[in-house]
Amino acid sequence: MSTIGELERRAGIGTAPEERTAFWMRFHHLDGAECLKAGVAELERLIAEREAMPVPASNAAGSRARRAKLPPLSVEEEQVLQAYAARHGRRWKSILNRVWMGEPPHDNAGTLRRQRNSHGPSWLQSYRLPRAESPDRGAVTLPDGSEGGGGES
After folding, report:
1. 11: which of 6, 17, 46, 113 fits an S-S bond (Cβ 3.0–4.6 Å)?
2. According to the 3-state scheme, what is the secondary structure of 64-81?
3. How many angstroms separate the CA atoms of 148 and 139, rounded?
4. Nearest to 26 by CA among 107, 122, 113
5. Each residue's pLDDT tens digit, 23-41
């Protein structure tokens, strides 16, 4: 079994107290063992992501390794995300990210849980919902039926 420090190093978390604190502060809202479990799960995800990345030949020269390309979402996964966004409104990404970290409302079963495991929270931040064009005017229609939009799409 690995120590927390060893997991942190393998995940790419720096050894400075500030870096370690910054990582663990994301889980401070959880109680005791739940905080530890969530942190270790994220460390293991980061390690798996890091070890799956190809190491470029120029890495010795100090360049950073690029992230591995994630598989595209299926039509079902896109629809589930659109439904979740419509249900939770403008802050849907923040809500889903907190749910993925163990907070209520715990409504991320099935497809959303698989997306968390395969793509992770950092992917969610950069994800954008697809915009559908209205056939009559070419206007942008959001999943909730409204036009235009902003905020966290």
Report:
1. 46
2. CCCCCCCCCCCHHHHHHH
3. 8
4. 122
5. 888 888 888 888 888 888 9
